[in-house]
Amino acid sequence: MVQHLTELLEFFPSIVCVMASPCPSRLIQEVGPSAFRRLQSRMRRELFLILSRLSQVCLVNKSMKVAFASDHGGRGLRLFLQQRAGANGYAVVDLGTESDASVDYPDFAKIGCEAVLSGRADCCVLICGTGIGISIAANKMKGIRCALCSSEYDAEMARKHNNANALALGGRTTGPEVASSILLRFLATEFEGGRHATRLEKIKAMEE
């Protein structure tokens, strides 16, 4: 729903105009002109409230700074996702690697996670060939909750239930469009809190 917010806001004046248009005589006779005018007014208020709330959620998400780091196996997908994230209004922090020369994924897991832990970024996207190695490395760092995701549902649950602050993807196992949909769902989803916060506190205690 949030991804269509811009279109909804653009068409909002048209929606209001439709609401303000004369009511068919048959409907006026059934509900009465006074009742219909009250209904129009309420519909306008409710619709504006809904769109305003969606706008607030969208603006919060779009203000996120997202760090991207990968080894050589994830470089191509990383560059693609950086462009896609930027095109969707997110601030991108590019942490390399800069070439296709072989490098070690733990080094880039560390670089990406340090950007999150230092406050330089709100979350990070880590990519190696399969996403497995770089996610294992990331989860060795205290305060990092890295989720290796292969679907939009994985990404949504990682944020909603686990408050993941790092997303791992496989550059050789996940196509660019699928990876893009996973990334955008991850970034657009908020943590639910509640019972999930209690469980995260238990994980935090395990890090001590």
TrEMBL record:
InterPro entries in the record: RpiB (IPR004785), RpiB_LacA_LacB (IPR003500), RpiB_LacA_LacB_sf (IPR036569)
UniProt keywords, alphabetically: Isomerase
Gene Ontology MF terms: isomerase activity
One example of a Gene Ontology biological process annotation: carbohydrate metabolic process
Domain of life: Eukaryota
Pfam families the UniProt entry points to: LacAB_rpiB
Name of the protein described by the UniProt record: Ribose 5-phosphate isomerase
Protein source organism: Giardia duodenalis assemblage B
Lineage of source species: Eukaryota, Metamonada, Diplomonadida, Hexamitidae, Giardiinae
